[in-house]
Every structure is written in C-alpha cells, then in structure tokens.
Amino acid sequence: MPQVLKSRTAWGRRLKDYAYTQGLDRPGWAWEFVRRNDRFLRDCRLSKAGRPVEITHVSGAICLRPRRRFVLAEAWGLRLFPNPEKSSADTPVFWLPDQLKYHANSTMYHANDDMDETISLRDFTCHRTVLIDNCTEHVIIRSAQESTRLCLAGRSILFGKCKYAFRIDALSRLEKVVETLRKLTSLREISTPTEPQCNQHETHLRNYLIALDGHLAGRTYREIAEVIYGPIRVKGVWTNETRHLKEEMRRAVRRGIEYMEGEYRALL
Length: 268
Hints:
By secondary structure, this protein is α/β, with parallel strands linked by helices. The protein folds into two domains: 15-19 and 198-267, no CATH class; 51-189, no CATH class. The protein has helices spanning 26-34, 38-46, 71-75, 174-189, 200-216, 221-229, 231-237, 244-261, and strands at 55-56, 62-64, 104-110, 127-133, 136-142, 147-154, 162-167. Strands 1-2-4-5-6-3-7 form a seven-stranded mixed β-sheet. β4 and β5 form a beta hairpin. The longest helix has 18 residues, at 244-261. It starts with 25 loop residues before the first helix and ends in a 7-residue tail after the last helix.
C-alpha cells in the first residue's frame, strides 16, 4: 500500500466530503473513478493546450467548441479532457457517443411559431451544456434528479425552437432510447429542485470511491472503514472473529482500483 499522501484526491477522512456524489448519473460516476488514474492525469497534462473556452448562450446554456481532436482523450472514451480537479457536477464531461449506453440521436429542423412539438434549450430550467462538433451538437441536460445526453444533427438548437425527429439506429437500442427520452421529458417538467436520493448501487460506488482514495493516500483498511462507518462502530467489530469489515474494505479497495483502471466504462 502506498505511503505517500496525494492531495489531489477527495480523501479527507470525513464522509461528508463525498456528499457531492449524491445524484451523480452513471457517466458522472465513471468520471469520478477515471480522474484518479495517474496515466489519465498524465494524458490530461499533455493535452491541456487548446482546451475550449466555455461561453454562456443567451438561454443560459454553456457552449464549447473544440478547435481540434483530442486523440488522447478519445482513447479514454472522452471527446476532450475536462478539468480533472472538478467533479462532473462542476465541469461538463462529454463522453464519446459510442461509449454511452443511454443517449438519443435526433435530426433537428426549422420550427414555425405555431408548432406544438418543438424543443429548445429554454424548455429546461436545469443545467445545460452544448459541445459543438462539426455538424453535430452534443447536449447534456442535468438536474439533481436526472440527466440525459443527446446528439443533434441538422438545424442548431442554439438558434431557438426546433422541430425534431429522434432516430433509433437498431432495435437493440430501442429500450435505451426510450429511457433516455423518458428522462428528457422528466427534465422538461422539473420546476423545483429536490434533494437527490442514493440507492444501494450508488452507496456501493461511493464506498468504492472512498476506499480508492484511502488506498491512494496510503491509509489502512481500518482508517477507510472509519470514514465510511464511523470510529465507534468500527471499534466494536474490527477485531471480531469473522473480520468481515476488514474483508469488506479489502474488496472495496479492489473494486475501486478496477473501476479506476478501466471498468469505469461499464458505468457509461
């Protein structure tokens, strides 16, 4: 186990330091693990030049227009490198569409004012980010409860209301596209934010992330357990015959490393 403390991780021996993970979508969790990878951070530094500047659209959306391909980022499944010091709640993270299980493709058309079935960035009150990539616009729409990703071709959604035609490229993707559009509808109807709720899978991912940070910071299994469960609970069971908590921490460290080293793609 490494003994050198690494200040770049979120490690702080407090569970509340990980409160920002509540409400992360699956691509957001993938980002949390990969941004702790040393090789990934090295490639980020090599590709720092040319990172696009964020511009605020009149709708309040954030726009990015890369001027070149980021080949090193594409090797990690990303369109470009975000700031690795920030979570996906604080910086837009655009994964390559072919890496995402849940996204929808649409062709956009000019819309007349009297059309009912239109879409625009102003339809959403939550966070919106648009990456302009040649003739395609990649859009992330995110709230504390839901998020969805769209790949739009044709008329630019930045011009205002558009008529749309969502495409299903294969029957195998039908269910995932329908789920993406369900989330899009939900995001359109959100008026007041609510506190995100963690399910069991997200709790496991949070524990793997804590264990990974503890491992990278040179902490012991017991110190990691104390962050997750508290010193009092750990003291009462750490030395019992089953040693189940120590085994749980060992497993959590192993899973955290696996996600960091490449299994993060399974979360996309």
